Amino acid sequence: MKKILCIETAYLPPIQYLCKWVDRDEVYLEAAEHYQKGSYRNRCYLAGSHGPLCLSIPLKKGKNQGQSIREVQIDNSTSWNKHHWRSIQTCYGKAPFFDHYAATLQPLYHSPPRFLFDWNLRLLYWLKEQFALQTEIKWTDSYRKQLPTGWLDLRNSISPKAHRNKSDPDFHPQPYPQLFSDKLGFLPNLSTLDLLFCLGPESDLSRYTQTSFGGEKKPGG
């Protein structure tokens, strides 16, 4: 039986999000949901010199939580993409593997697409390639409150908001050499960019998870 995960879209997601893709045959991005504010859908967290730095993508009418996620448009009039790339470069320009990954990541920031879902998808494909994940990326065409038997349902389980973040006993943040750690200590569960820029080819998402998120969720479970 195929191992299938269903999860919402995310912008340069945290380690916890992407490590759930390990050993999954297919990942279905929830494309039939409504946009939700205060989530990883349009924000990520980097290691800044003064602590975690949040990058948030500006949206056109995207703050309406009743809007379909596929219809949420990025406000590309603000040159946010240049600001985000400068922030990434400022945070990680001195990281051991920044130049290695920047060569293929920076061009993606030159002309972001119109829709948030498409932009996130572009970056998720890029991350999939960098981490050598064999998972096939798909997306749903209709919303199901109860997913088929055997699917792992992690929709709205991983959030930057503590009160929305569901318990995950199978996620084990493992310290690794980070920039600014001498001043800030280890900052867990940042964007997977942090892991790549700091560890490069030695990045191993399987180190952060042991089993599935609370077990496979059955319909009605």
Mean pLDDT: 91
CA(first)-CA(last) distance? 19 Å
Counting DSSP E segments of at least 2 residues, the number of strands comes to 8
What order do the strands of the largest sheet run in, or round the barrel if closed? 7-2-1-8
Shape field: globular
Order of helices and strands: EHEEEEEHHHEEHH
Q: Tell me the major beta sheet.
A: 4 strands, parallel
Treating each run of at least 4 consecutive H or I residues as one helix, how many helices?
6
Please give the share of residues in helix. Answer: 10-25%
Low-confidence stretches: 211-221
- The proportion of strand residues reads 5-15%
Query: How many domains?
Result: 1
Compute the CA-based radius of gyration. Answer: 17 Å
Please identify the structural class as seen in this structure: alpha/beta
Structure summary:
Helix content is 24%, strand content 14%. By secondary structure, the chain is an alpha/beta fold.
Describe this structure in words.
This protein is of the alpha/beta class and 221 residues long. It has one domain. Helix content is 24%, strand content 14%. It has six helices and eight strands, in the order E-H-E-E-E-E-E-H-H-H-E-E-H-H. It has helices at residues 15-19, 80-92, 98-105, 116-130, 181-184, 192-199; strands at residues 4-7, 26-29, 43-48, 51-56, 59-60, 73-74, 136-139, 152-153. The protein has a four-stranded parallel sheet, with no helix packed on it. It is globular and about 45 Å long. The model is unreliable at 211-221 (pLDDT under 50).
